User: Fold this.
Amino acid sequence: MRTRAALAAGGALALVVGLSACTENTDGNSGIDPNRQSSGVIATDPKDSLGPAPEVPGAVKGGTLTILRETKISHLDPQRIYNFVGLNTAPLFARFLTTWKDDGKGKVTLVGDLAETPGVNVNNDCKVWEFKIKSGVKFEDGSPITSKEIAYGIARSFNPDLAGGPTYIQEWLADTAAFDTKWDFKANKTSLPPGLTTPDDKTLRFEFAKPHCDLPFAASLPSTAPLPPAKDTGVDLDAAPFASGPYKLTKNTAGVELVFEKNEHWDPATDPVRHQYPDKFVWQFGPDATAQTDRIITDGADAATLGWNGVATSRVAKVSADGTLKGRTLLEPTPSANRLTINTQRVTDLTVRQALNYAIDREGLIKTLGGDYVASPMTTLMPPSTLGFKSFDVYPAGKNGDIEKAKATLAGKTPELVLVISDDSGDQEIGTQLKNNLEKAGFKITVRTTPSDSKLDETKKKNNQWDLYLDSWAADWPSGAAILPVLFDGRNIKPEGNSNTSFINNDAINAEFDRVLGMDPAKQADEWAKIDERIMKELAPAVPLYADVAFYIHGTKVGGLYIDSIFGYPAFTRAFVKQ
Amino acid sequence: MSMLQIETDPAGMDPTAVPVAPERGMVGRSPGRLAWERLRRNRTAMVSGWIMLFLVVLGVSAPLVELLYGIGPYEQFQDRIANNSLPLGYLGGISGDHWFGLEPKLGRDIFIRLVYGLRTSLLIATSAAVITTAIGIVLGIVAGYLGGWIDAVISWVIDFALALPFLIFALAVMPTVTARFYGPRDEIDVPFRIAVMILLFAMFGWTGTARLVRGQVISLREREFVEAARASGAGLGHILFRQLLPNLWAPILVTFSLAVPGYITGEAALSFLGIGIVEPTPDFGVMISNSLDYMDGDPMYLIIPGFVIFLLVLTFNLFGDGLRDALDPKSSR
Assistant:
């Protein structure tokens, strides 16, 4: 008996081993284009902003599209939405001043959404902007949307109780970062913030103290969604937003489920981008990425489902190798750019920073991250998805780095640098990879772990103790203006909470920022690419590493999904359910 | 051993020895020798013992193995890793150069990391077992023999230690201690982490042995030999460690041999949770924690370290069981 049991156990083990042996792992290619470039314009022709949006080939009406996510969506109040899941859900139930027409492959056009055009630069100095509001746009109760409701939406974002959303427009109107003290929303509910006026029901006017040529871009964020003052429920709006888009929230079981159903007062003729194909969109919260991926691979009951958390790391090899799943996956580069920040307050020697750039082994790093379905290499500070992006490499060293060149640049120095990483296991492997990689070039790297929940806050402190840390930046719109000045303008350095974690402050570069920020947004694009190259060449404040790659899987009945080119997450404006 | 065996094989004598010296009659054997004979006849215990010994020798001589194998535990072979971050080839990259394949992502050799991981595990587990057993013996013997308020205090401390939740305590202590001893720019030394782990195990692990020893001592302290020693004026130390202790070796040896595998899994569990050994030090817990993501893509990465730790713990446990049977043949199973 005992021998038979042993044989059975041995046989089972052999079977497991045998099954895994059946497949040879070969050096495939994800087929992702690491340099996929964005081309984009701001629509000058008002016709671009007209509805209806062109029909999606093969799209049919009806059905329920389910989206699975591990955790609930933190905010549904459009003025408070700022995370990616919120930014891509908001277009279902809310409309904004402007929005992006997006082919999902990097070709984007900024068009008017509630506005007839993406803004009129009245005096051509970017200080006065006017938006004409479309006719026939309505809320979910059928009442018309006018400039008054849009202005009220912007005004309520000054309320410190409703924090969490983007703060660009508030800061520009108030001309200070402390906008909520400059204009107190709660004391002035019937008036509007300084500089914001509604000359008539169809006109919305912004007057800024300084030029802000990026207003049309900033107006594409959900914080410009309209709201009638009578429907403002304050913090409770988070649970029941008042819809202006093609769907309205009909059921909200906190932390469990959201159900969006058709809003019959939405008129497709006014909307240049949205559709109303499925009867319902249902968000379900709970299953983690692995459970989501497994359910969707199985299909069946989950045939009309998308997993918002993407293909789980543990399933990437399986999903990418399975040819039958190819038609159900979405794979695109995203605008989330990751870099190895060099603290220039501590690493003051430019040659050391340049040598780091020569030594970096991007291919090895990407393998450590999980391969080319997770990350795609980058040699510039701005990701390829930025408008006007030009591919360049100031420190050409091949995909594995040039150790000899790095050694030559160091000229015999052996700098001792401290790399700080968070204490989760994935980050620790990256620490090992970077240490082994850089020490080959003669650096002496100390890897210091710190609790992951406080790492970001600590590295954002001006006088932090570390030399190297990993940072990532996802811009709110694909313009260099939302990347380079934010990350590298030294005049904004504060004691804490810096985005300029390299702490560079170079007068010539700062002056360049001012010059380009004052230009027409359409003409800025090329200039940002030049500044990017100049910063890398003259200052080398970071080692550009990789852009995140979006890899998603959906059921067989889902159609029309795409990865949006602005944020790099699944977008629902064209989604439909196959019958 | 059954009664039948005892009758047919008197005094557990080696049957081959009987015809050689029949005229000598009764052969005097120490209890230790008797136990050794019983252990030797237990096939499971012997096989486990040999495998255990092999693994221990392999772990202890890790640098020598590295020298012979020609690959170090931190060397990366990323040219053998495909774009999808898994090793090229079959079975997780098993080849003549890399006997157990390569780790996904970083591309380090699994065999040599296992050998070094064995060393880390065994170092922590045996040190922790030695320290906890020593503490347990001393406190147990003192409490059991002296009784009274000393016994009450020690028993109270035991109850207190048993009531503290170990994992939560460990989770809280590790970051606090490292922050206390290391500046923000310092790397946390591996020996320091190992020392803290051993200390944590020592603080919580001694209670079992102490209780066992205390109970044994209470049953022994009124026996004649103890009273005789006391009557002839022996000091406290002599009675505790020369009279009582030798009578306790059997249960102590058994708890010790069963404690070691407990600490091996305990260490792996702490490292699995990220509060024990961390990257890049080779360790079972870290390896298994990392490999869980690859159950689908690269199952060998999970199977190999999982099997080795299973084998290590199983052989320690089986050997410990055999030892108990040999030392205490009256206990039935």
